[in-house]
TrEMBL record, chains A, B:
Subunit and interaction comment: Homodimer.
Keywords attached to this entry: Oxidoreductase
GO molecular function, one term: oxidoreductase activity, acting on the CH-CH group of donors, NAD or NADP as acceptor
Record protein name field: Enoyl reductase (ER) domain-containing protein
Residue ranges annotated for the Enoyl reductase (ER) domain, each copy included: 26-350
Signal peptide interval: none
């Protein structure tokens, strides 16, 4: 292995208002970096070769100028974008990890990253992926990574589904939605999804086993579409989009319904003051609804339980997972931007190196 | 006792749009009614003499033309308005109740009511009120009635407060709010309330022991007022008003905060399409908030536990309860309407007869 290598990096050039565009980011050409930890890297640091990068909706709020405190710090203009990824350890002073280990967790949008404490706490060793593991390594950006645990926690822990209940999932072909739909079907629920194209709607009904699905862009009245799909109402709503869809759902919830609030992707690119109005919240009282927000990092302790539960379903084909893989670090900005226009079909990720 | 008596009745004349006015209701002069159950009253019926009527915000949505299913049926134009009250049993074919018993529950806005099954299930025998009981009978429209159980369930069950947490209560001098504030103080929380007049704000700080309070009508920026009162944020919001206050609260909630959604009184008199927009719901995700709607009838089983807990506090003066008592059935429409203009100071009720 060479003592140095060229490290390309994707940086955020400036804070974003509205929809992100390619010129908000820049792919810097490779600068030589050492392939060993340096003397001034703090104890516990880990040097990795990044293999897959994950494009996730939560990254958009981090691109905005920070207006107020948030659970997730904004990106810093001029610095490398960070996000979930899959990587191979090249050097490590973290006793949990050794050179050659595969890991998933928060890393940088670059060829090589030095992950330093406390961020190393989010690096998890991969036991089942890649050759011999029987599942694609890339799944650790999706079904076996943050989106997988998000779907599991949001559906099973937050929504507490019962057999026979009705479930609605928005952004249903996305990284998280496609899993919630399949988990709901496995739980004996009646599940309907919405997505933004004919192709995605077909995928929901054929590949993911949703009982029904609709293209929200072709529905002039979302509340009427939901009424058509759920004549008796919705017990569980897995919320990925917010805005007008949430308002329509509120009118169609059943008594004692639960709403797991995972994301508001329809709102992330709107400027302050442009956010969609929600006007039907009084349904929360009359229908005794529980709306609960959650984020995956609060539930990391459930990962081993989730992984043990989901792996057999992946291996025997009970659960499918559709990925949309962009090739090469240079394509990462465009892939991320595509999320906010619904261009991806399935989980969006970027492959930046073969698993050498 | 005479075999018949004059029965005055308050009817809803027509469905209400916007704010209710006195002409929406009518007090009909007394028609002679028998003071015994009649042969065609179904088994289990109870004839009562109404003593106190309760004016509660939830009655307003029942005055609107029913647009969609609701947990609470709309009133019927031309019929007697129903609501919570305190009454004495005159005749009963319900084995739980005997003539002379005092009861609280759903009755009519009239001198005498025949309560029929299944509504009789909501009639509860009063054990501690009136002469000898040591607490005013009228309290069974408030602290010992529906508002009391509402405050208890919403605060203790839905919000699960911990000592040292911060609590915000809107409509804080009302029938429910004044109790939530005192329960929060007893739970070792730091509690702040909002109300709509200087007099009410003083009451919060002096009589009810709120640590701080503000007049929302004098605050040009509700979010800034909350930031001033809660520099570290709000752990628990007891929601009685909705609309702009909810939007301001969302910006000031702390991570893992809880919002018990009890009422949206600011919205009840707005027409469809006029409802206030809520635009800050994305805080539910980032702050992992739980918003939960509830209504008191779902929690009736907790009443004995609540009554046993609260009675000693009433008797030893630890908990105060302020009532706003209108005199006579004729004043009932005006008293109810006053709720929606904040004219009441404390729990609004109507005394329609001495406890004969």
């Amino acid at each position: 292995m060479a003592a140095t290598a060229a490290n390309r990096r994707v940086i955020l050039k400036d804070y974003v208002e509205g929809y992100p565009r390619e010129e908000h980011m820049e792919v810097l050409p490779g600068a030589e970096v050492p392939l060993r930890l340096a003397g001034d890297d703090p104890p516990g640091s880990v040097l990795v070769r990044n293999l897959y990068l994950s494009c996730d909706p939560y990254m958009r709020p981090k691109m905005s100028r920070p207006l107020r405190e948030s659970y997730t710090a904004a990106f810093t203009p001029g610095s490398v974008i960070t996000g979930y990824g899959v990587a191979r350890v090249l050097d490590s002073s973290d006793p949990r990890l050794a050179p050659g280990d595969l890991v998933w967790g928060i890393t940088g949008w670059e060829d090589y990253s030095v992950v330093k404490p406390p961020a190393t706490a989010f690096l998890a060793k991969i036991s089942h992926g890649g050759e011999g593991g029987g599942v694609p390594l890339s799944y650790y950006t999706g079904i076996l990574g943050m989106p997988g645990l998000t779907a599991y926690v949001g559906f099973h822990e937050i929504c507490a589904p019962k057999k026979g209940e009705t479930v609605f999932v928005s952004a249903a072909s996305g990284a998280v939605g496609q899993l919630v739909g399949q988990f709901a079907r496995l739980a004996g629920c009646h599940v309907v999804g919405s997505a933004g194209s004919k192709e995605k709607v077909e995928l929901l009904k054929t590949k993911f086993g949703f009982h029904d699905a609709f293209n929200y862009k072709e529905e002039p009245d979302l509340a009427a579409a939901l009424k058509r799909c759920f004549p008796e109402g919705i017990d569980i709503y897995f919320e990925n989009v917010g805005g007008a869809m949430l308002d329509a759902v509120l009118l169609n919830m059943r008594v004692h319904g639960r709403i797991a609030v995972c994301g508001f992707i329809s709102q992330y690119n709107l400027r302050e003051g442009e956010k969609d109005a929600v006007r039907n919240l009084s349904a929360v009282i009359g229908k005794r609804l529980r709306m609960q927000g959650f984020i995956e990092p609060d539930h990391k302790h459930l990962y081993p339980q989730y992984e043990a539960w989901v792996l057999p379903y992946i291996r025997d084909g009970t659960i499918a997972y559709v990925e949309d893989v962009a090739e090469g670090l240079e394509s990462a900005p465009k892939a991320l931007i595509g999320l906010f226009h619904g261009r991806n079909v399935g989980k969006q990720l970027v492959r930046i190196a073969d698993d050498e």
